[in-house]
């Protein structure tokens, strides 16, 4: 796997590259601003971009805007965003249209190396991975069909949004895999996601969860 890192903190940038290298993942470029991210994606055509939201010069949303621009050069580019804060609208912007895999993690999660590397690999492989705190914040503002989900169904959908498989959800919730499948079927029904050959209902459920 080949990764581009965009992070303005030199220490964190080098630390991320070291973690990835230890995990057998190649960092083909590590840059400190948005334009450099776009240039690196154009040059290296990476499998994943790891991007800080707040970068120079204003430290507001330059990283996000650069990631979206990079996707115009490389459609479908998986992007894993790292942020110090929970900022729901950034997750929604990245998920827009469901066109590409994305992840949103708080920087503090990088300290758990195993989980971080797992998230990197899952996003690169096409999964949606959201930090549990981001998911909790999203839950605070759900309504409509999402408001009809039971507590257990919310928990299952939250784990789906983290990119977990049915078997992993079953282990996390201490239930059978069959029970998880029943909950997911109920989620699909309540969200109005019927069978369609061209639709991925699991992805659509997560997008509905994000309010898209």
UniProtKB/TrEMBL annotation:
A Gene Ontology BP annotation from the UniProt entry: regulation of DNA-templated transcription
Domain Response regulatory positions: 2-122
Named from the GO MF annotations, one term is: DNA binding
Gene3D superfamilies, alphabetized: 3.40.50.2300
Domain of life of the organism in this record? Bacteria
Residue numbers bearing the 4-aspartylphosphate modification: 52
What's one Pfam family the UniProt record gives for this protein? Response_reg
Question: Which SMART domains does the record associate with it?
Answer: HTH_LUXR, REC
Keywords in alphabetical order? DNA-binding, Phosphoprotein, Transcription, Transcription regulation
- Residue ranges occupied by any HTH luxR-type domain in the UniProt entry: 142-207
Q: What is this protein called?
A: DNA-binding NarL/FixJ family response regulator
Question: Which lineage?
Answer: Bacteria, Bacillati, Actinomycetota, Actinomycetes, Streptosporangiales
């Amino acid at each position: 796997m080949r990764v581009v890192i965009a992070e303005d903190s030199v220490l964190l940038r080098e630390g991320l590259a070291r973690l990835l290298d230890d995990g057998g993942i190649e960092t083909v470029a590590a840059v400190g601003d948005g334009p450099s991210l776009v240039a690196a994606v154009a040059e290296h055509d990476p499998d994943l971009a790891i991007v800080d939201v707040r970068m120079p010069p204003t430290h507001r949303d330059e990283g996000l805007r650069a990631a979206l621009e990079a996707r115009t050069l490389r459609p479908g580019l998986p992007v894993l965003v790292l942020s110090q804060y929970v900022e729901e609208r950034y997750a929604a912007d990245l998920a827009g249209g469901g066109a590409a895999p994305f992840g949103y993690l708080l920087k503090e999660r990088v300290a758990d190396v195993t989980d971080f590397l797992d998230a990197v690999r899952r996003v690169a492989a096409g999964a949606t991975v959201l930090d549990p705190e981001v998911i909790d914040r999203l839950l605070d503002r759900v309504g409509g069909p999402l408001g009809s989900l039971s507590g257990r169904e919310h928990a299952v959908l939250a784990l789906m949004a983290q990119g977990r498989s049915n078997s992993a959800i079953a282990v996390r919730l201490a239930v059978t895999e069959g029970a998880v499948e029943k909950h997911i079927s109920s989620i699909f029904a309540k969200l109005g996601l019927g069978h369609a050959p061209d639709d991925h209902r699991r992805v659509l459920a997560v997008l509905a969860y994000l309010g898209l």
